[in-house]
Design brief:
single chain; 239 residues; alpha/beta; Rossmann fold; Arc Repressor Mutant, subunit A; 2 domains; five-stranded parallel β-sheet; five-stranded antiparallel β-sheet; 8 helices; 41% helix; 23% strand; globular; binds calcium ion
Length: 239
């Protein structure tokens, strides 16, 4: 089935360039040229991916990202940010974008990033036959195949990065990770210097999975080092 990508970008040259190259990869592309139209399109139907410019006339990219993340259905978001402001990227990741590319970007880089993100989001379907086992830590259950997590059997809504981070901890119970190690393992390339992004993701994860986020029992802080997932004794893998 053709995958549908919404591009929210007011700069006509950039929008047209993205459109051209993504169509070339056989994606169905829709372009919205300002924030209001973008938000309307983003929330009015299902998309396989949204490419979102940060600076837009009307509603800006951060607010659009926030609102998309409040919707129940998860959609991968790739944010376009400007080189001049490093802060843009950090803030973008913190409001729930999955990834970003910095303008000016190469078409090759953009295409690679889009493919990788779509591949990740399609994984539950293609990997079903060799599903990784469900991971349980205390009252928390994580299903890597469907990318669902529950606490006390209640579903928890997580962004892609929050899920990846949680799974990474749960797969390594008791092991302490420095923030830089988490950036390397969970965020991957090019995120050196964004240690506080880790902190904010962990805070949000705790708000979603801990009984009392002010006294975390699942993801605990190891002072002066980093974080670890607690209760290795209760951590069991079941098929
Ligand atoms: Ca713009």
């Amino acid at each position: 089935m053709t995958q549908r990508i919404l591009v929210i970008e007011d700069e006509r040259d950039i929008a047209d360039l993205i459109d051209l190259h993504l169509r070339d990869l056989d994606y169905a592309v829709t372009i919205a040229r300002d924030g209001n139209a973008g938000l309307r399109q983003a929330t009015s139907r299902r998309w396989d991916m949204i490419i979102l410019d940060l600076r837009l006339p009307g509603i800006d990219g951060l607010e659009i990202c926030r609102q998309i993340r409040q919707a129940s259905q998860y959609v991968p978001i790739l944010m376009l940010t400007s080189k001049s402001s490093e802060l843009d990227r950090v803030v973008g990741l913190e409001v729930g974008a999955d990834d970003y590319v910095t303008k000016p970007f190469s078409v090759l880089e953009l295409k690679a990033r889009v493919r990788a993100m779509l591949r990740r989001s399609q994984l539950p379907e293609t990997a079903r036959d060799r599903s990784p086992p469900t991971v349980k830590v205390g009252n928390l259950t994580i299903d890597p195949a469907t990318r669902h997590a529950t606490v006390h059997d209640e579903a928890v809504e997580l962004t892609a990065k929050e899920f990846d981070l949680l799974l990474h901890f749960a797969n390594n119970p008791g092991r302490v990770f420095k923030r830089t190690q988490l950036l390397d393992s969970v965020w991957g390339y090019g995120h050196a210097g964004y240690e506080h992004t880790v902190n904010s993701h962990i805070n949000r994860l705790r708000a979603k999975i801990e009984n009392d986020p002010t006294h975390p029992e699942l993801i605990v802080t190891v002072w002066g080092v980093g974080y670890k997932m607690h209760s290795p004794i209760n951590a069991v893998k079941s098929p």
